[in-house]
Specification:
It is a single chain. By secondary structure, the chain is mainly alpha-helical. It has one domain. It contains 9 helices and no strands. Helix 1 crosses helix 2, helix 5 packs antiparallel against helix 6 and helix 5 crosses helix 8. The protein is globular. The protein starts with 11 loop residues before the first helix and ends with a helix. About 30% of the residues are buried.
């Protein structure tokens, strides 16, 4: 996998994503600080398109399709396998949460259920391969609460694109 880009800790986008993520989780009655932190970091991470397509094939070309990512994760040797499965979980969650309409395009042949299954499998496999106990717990939570995490990110998307919320964020200087 390619080296990932990120934002500085004090970047305003971090505060905005943290606020929106927490609100989305509350709306779905999923009050979990570990998941909130993880989803916030996922949104920050995928702010960079290069990170979203960070999985590479054997020739080093970015993988754009979930089926190719799953195949590559099965082929890759340890210890990289864990990061590939984590990425599959992240990618599936992000697409379903933030861009679900991309799955209904005519040339798209993969269902939302396929993405959800791949996401849960990705997080479960990453958790089984993980040695850090906090990450193991978070990956298990993400696999178990995958649908509610998707719905929470759907809320984040609504908040970020709704003119009313945009006005309120500006009016009350909420970031």
């Amino acid at each position: 996998m390619k080296r990932r880009q990120s934002l500085p800790e004090n970047h305003p986008l971090r505060n905005l994503f943290r606020t929106l993520t927490q609100r989305g989780l509350v709306q779905e009655q999923l009050r979990d600080q570990d998941i909130s932190t993880y989803l916030t970091e996922l949104l920050i991470d995928f702010t960079f398109v290069e990170n979203m397509y960070g999985m590479r094939d054997a020739e080093g070309k970015p993988l754009e399709y979930l089926v190719d990512m799953l195949q590559r994760a099965m082929e890759i040797e340890m210890p990289a396998k864990k990061s590939y499965f984590k990425h599959i979980g992240d990618y599936s969650l992000f697409v379903l949460g933030m861009f679900p309409e991309s799955l209904s395009r005519p040339r798209q042949a993969v269902s939302a259920a396929y993405y959800a299954d791949a996401g849960r499998i990705g997080y479960r496999a990453a958790g089984e391969l993980e040695s850090n106990s906090w990450n193991v717990v978070v990956f298990r939570k993400l696999a178990g609460e995958f649908e509610r995490c998707v719905l929470s990110l759907n809320r984040v998307r609504e908040y970020a694109s709704d003119p009313f919320y945009q006005f309120m964020f500006r009016e009350f200087n909420i970031t």
